[in-house]
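Chain A, query sequence.
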Amino acid sequence: MRKVITTFRRGSGAAVILLLIAATVATLQRHSWSNPERVRLASAAVRSSDTVSSQSLYQLESAWTTDHDKMLRLVELQGRYTILSLIYTKCSGTCPLLVKELQAFGASLPPDIKDQTRFVAITIDPADTSETLLQYRHEMRLDEQQWILLRGAPVEVRELAAVLGFNYAKTGEQTDDSQFSHSNLLTLLNPHGEIIRQQQGAGGNLGELISIIRHGT
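Chain A, predicted structure.
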């Protein structure tokens, strides 16, 4: 797997607080986070919050549903390092490989790191219901204590994907069985929801995440 790694300085996190409107999503996805106009739009869209910083992904106010059909907002993820991925359950390509690598990584974590870390997988497929996600959890044997599986409204998934720089599109006929062309992006958030690292897939570099989590940078 080709390794493409992007490390973010804490000062550059303002771009991750973007609350997109539907009319801007397609445009924003064509630009990188270094694009000044994209940063300007992100800053202009910030909603004030007393609980998270202006650099936090948890500024997004979208509501999500777990595989146990419970509502969750991203701000509720505060307090641990979060390894975030966007997947879909019918994927026959990179998604199951990435999930398995992360699962193995989670099982191998030292106790002090495991207690500080969670994995969050969000589906990009509107056809994935809570029941589908729960079945996926069982099939993939994802630990209840370590893994959170989420689904959301299509516009909210698009907003989050654009904030992360994750691109996806449905391929083939527009049916429930269609596949998606998508990025293979892994995002590490600190306990405050700020992006501190992104990389394309596991790429054999997961060991470096242990050092980042242990030292808090």
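The first helix runs from residue 22 to 28. The CA atoms of residues 56 and 194 lie 4 Å apart.
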